[in-house]
Design brief:
Blueprint (H helix, E strand, L loop, with lengths): L2 E3 L6 H13 L10 E2 L8 E2 L8 H13 L14 E7 L7 E8 L5 H7 L2 E5 L8 H15 L4 E7 L3 H9 L3 E6 L2 E7 L3
InterPro entries: Acyl_CoA_acyltransferase (IPR016181), GNAT_dom (IPR000182)
Protein name: GNAT family N-acetyltransferase
């Protein structure tokens, strides 16, 4: 089992260690370090691994992740609100093992085709322990509470582990599109 926690300062060191693991594995897209360049009226939000060593900068990242659920917070054009949880190893309190997010809407063309409602990533050293599957299991009823009846969850065509995770949580395979496997999960909303 994995614990879902709101992003918090207590994860500072383990979050950075996980970011380093993702980078070493060539998976920096999953490192959780936000990099949204300025676009239109959006001023941009950019963090760097080096700057996040500073507690104040990490606190700013935490505030960004928590605040992303609020419609009033700035975001790139067309981006939706999302709730982020950080996965915590129950046997090692304050140990960040990954993250999972629930996008509140998938109106954006990228989300409705390949991104979906849910995104997750588990640091390489914590994989094959059921954390992703358990996190997704916990997020499904949270989506139902938001009134989301069906979740679109996608994964890369060659990501067999992620496909199994989705299928273990009731994902029904719809097909392939743009290099992604597409699944739908009924939330019971």
């Amino acid at each position: 089992m994995v614990l879902l926690a709101m992003p918090h300062l207590r994860f500072h060191r383990s979050f950075l260690a996980a970011a380093d693991e993702f980078d070493a594995a060539g998976e920096s897209a999953h490192d959780g370090i936000v990099n949204w360049p300025a676009e239109g009226d959006f001023p941009g939000v950019v963090f760097t691994r080096e700057a996040l060593e500073e507690p104040a900068e990490f606190e700013r990242l935490v505030a960004n992740r928590v605040g992303d659920a609020d419609e009033a917070n700035p975001r790139p054009p067309g981006w939706t609100t999302a709730t982020y949880w950080w996965m915590e190893d129950p046997e090692r309190p304050d140990e960040y093992v990954g993250s999972i997010s629930l996008r509140h809407h998938i109106d954006h063309p990228l989300l409705s085709t390949v991104g979906g409602h849910v995104g997750y990533g588990v640091r390489p050293s914590a994989r094959r322990r059921g954390f992703a599957s358990d996190a997704l299991r916990q997020v499904v009823p949270l989506a139902a509470e938001r009134g989301i009846e069906r979740l679109l969850v996608t994964c890369d065509l060659d990501n067999v582990a992620s496909a199994r995770t989705i299928e273990a949580n009731g994902g029904r395979f719809e097909g392939e599109l743009s290099g992604k496997r597409r699944y739908w999960i009924d939330t019971g909303a």
